[in-house]
Each structure stands twice: as structure tokens, then as C-alpha cells.
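---------- Forwarded message ----------

FYI, see the Aspartyl/glutamyl-tRNA(Asn/Gln) amidotransferase subunit B record below. Original note from H. follows.
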Amino acid sequence: MQWEVVIGLETHTQLQTKSKIFSGSSIAFGAEPNTQASAVDIALPGVLPVLNQEAVQCAIKFGLAVNAEIAPRSVFARKNYFYPDLPKGYQISQYELPVVGKGSLTVQVGDQEKTIRITRAHLEEDAGKSVHGASAGMSGIDLNRAGTPLLEIVTEPDMRSAAEAVAYAKKLHELVQWIGICDGNMQEGSFRCDVNVSVRPKGSDKLGTRREIKNLNSFRFMQQAIEYETRWQIETLEDGGTIQQATVLFNPDTGETRAMRSKEEANDYRYFPDPDLLPLQITVEDIAKVKAVMPELPGDMKARFEREYSLSAYDASGLTSSRGIADYFTAVVAQAAEPKMAANWVMGSVAAKLNEQDQDISASPVSPLQLAGLLKRIADNTISNKIAKEVFEAMWAGEGDADSIIEKKGLKQVTDSGAIEAIIDEVLAANAAMVEEFRAGKEKAFNALVGQAMKASKGKANPAQVNEVLRRKLGA
């Protein structure tokens, strides 16, 4: 029997606010345990939550970015369950009336585009954190994270492979950073995914029993977890077993998932409207204010780069793969650099060095202004492309801007036709055999002579002039 995997994602996105969603406590990462937990966060008797308006604006931004419905009225609910890191005994979340409704996100998977439907995105507070091994044989509770604002983004079960799920998660990860609502730091838990996986006979429209893989904070782990879980479910069914709905954890060391607990349904949480919080009202004017300060979205910027700079779809897509790269490229072009050349260098030499050092473009030691200066010296024939790479390496090492490095190292390109002719005359005299090979019809010999000329000039001769003078002297 052929099987089909069905995948849906729930993504917890930590919102980039200064304080928690219902209190004024800081959400800064790395503080000493329990130093950022206020009376509201630890649920002391008599305290009341107050909604953080900045969190609401973040939710509106996301809704606009995925063309979603933004509810004019949404309601906060109490999600009841007991766990040591949940001091109130319930989590304030949204249930029947979320702030963001149906939307979509289109992703690229190989050479195919796929649109993933977003069911909803709702505001909620995070729980605290259990700290195991804090003392010998004991666990501790850190409530610094309790009350941190989250936007939980839920998809329809539209994905049919691990590759599609990872493509969606990556696109969502980049989008929430692009619009400035989340820092995207997966190691710190700012962006973590729960993946619902089920399998069914290929061609069936009935969903199988799902298992939820919790708290995946790495795209690589997500891929591995989905692939393992898919194989496990198929093997279980083919061996005559049944799938029990469950919450499972992925172990990166073994590459396997294991059941943690039976999966709860909504009625297990006994949701009811929170009596301490009024319904959230969002007006048309509220949405307009947020829309007015929204950055240009990746798809719109990609289309603009193609239209204004005559870039290919491939180049424009690469340049808008992250907000940082797009801003860097835009800053280079703003210094009058030729767009296609700028695109080649940003996605070529700059990206290669960043990948080599595992750095974000914000950490580039070569600023957009410096790169533009280098590109101008290529364009005006001060240096060749080959010499430019040497200059770029020096710039990356912090030796200064392009002009000072060119001057200091004597790298200015030789464009004097008399000097180039003298070099070529010497090369022709010293390589009579190559000259004869070329005249016998071997084009490779010409390339070899060009190489000899460039070597004799220490790479400084203008390559186009070398080619032109050499062909003239060879009568080609």
C-alpha cells in the first residue's frame, strides 16, 4: 500500500515587546531565575492582568503580512491544566475568537510553489520553565518566562512532506523577523514549532490519527523528526498496529521520537472566557495605523527589484531571502553601484564569507558603503575583477576601504595601451610554440597566451585590452 503523510504546524512566536503580555515585567533573555516574575506573573491573589497593546500591534502586523482576517472583536480565555511551571493553574490564551483568522503563506519547494493555509493566529502568554538538575536530585522552576507574549500561528494540515513543512517553517521564521515582531532566535526559544503528523492511504480524503511532535527549535531536527515519525507510523500500521493520539518528543541524539503523554483535546482544557479581561476591540483605524508603518513585504520587494533593477527572478529572490540581505543590497545600490554587479557580489563573495564564518549579514565587516566603493573601482577599470577579490579580502580583514588598499598595495589596473603592447610583445617572443599552435587552429593556445600576459603584468593589465591587443598582433 502507498501512504501519504499529512502535516500541520503550530508555531509559538515570541513577540518582540519590551514587557510581558499582561504585566510590566521585562522579557529580556538570560536573567537570573525568577528575577523577572512580578505579582501578576506568579498569580498572587487579587492581581489583575492588563493587556500589552504592543503585542496586539504585532498580531495585526502578522495578519496583514499573510493577508489574513483581523477580528474586530476577539476574546481571551483561560486554558486550564496543571503543570509546575504554570503558577495560575491556567494559561491565558484565545480559543473561539482569535485575533487573526484565515490567511496563507506561499512557499517554494524545489521548483514548485505551494500555498499553505493559515487557520488562525492567537495571542497568549507563555508558561514558566522547569529546570532539571538545578540541585542534586531536584528540579527547579524559573518563572521569568511566565507571561512572555506569544503569537501561536496554526496551519491547516496542508503539507505532504518534511521538505514542505521545513520550507513553510523557514518562510514563516524569516517573515516574522522581516516585519519586526520576533527576533527569531530558535536557541533561546523565541521561535519553536509543534508538528502534527499523521499518515493515510494515498488517495484517501480521511485524516489519520495524528501525533504532535513538541517544541522543535531547529529546522534540521524538524526534518529528521518528521521523517522518523512518518516511517514509524507507516511501519506500525503495516504491522497491524494502531496509532494512538499522543504528544511526542524528538531526541536529536537517537534521531527518534518517543511518546510523552496522550494528546489532549480542546475540551480537556475546559476553556472559558477570562473574566478579568475585556474583549479585545480592533478598529479599522487601528489596522490603518499599523499598516502605515509596515515595511515593504518580501514578495513586493522581489517584484520591485525585478522591475526597477532588471534583475532575474532568481537574483531578486536571493536578495529578499532575509530583511538584512535586502537592506544591505539596497544600501549598496543607493551609493550608485550598478545593481546587477551589486547583486553578484552580495550573493557571491559577501555571502560566501558570511557562510564560512557562520555570521549574519549584520556582522559583515565590509559595510555597504565600502562594497559600493569597491564596485565603482571595478566599473571605472581602476582594478580588474580578479584584483577586486584580493582587495575585498583585505577589506574583510579590516585593512581599510578599496581606494586606500589599492593605493597602498599598488593594485591599480594597467590600462596604458603602450605598456600592454610591450608586455604582449615579450609574451609572444617567449612563447613561439603557443603562437604556432594558435595559428594551427587551437583556440586553447590563445587562452594560454592571455594567461601568460596577465601573469607578466601581475594581474594588473586590463583583460579586455589584453584580448584585443593580442588578437590584433596575432592577426586573428
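H. also flagged this: Residues 3-285 form one domain.
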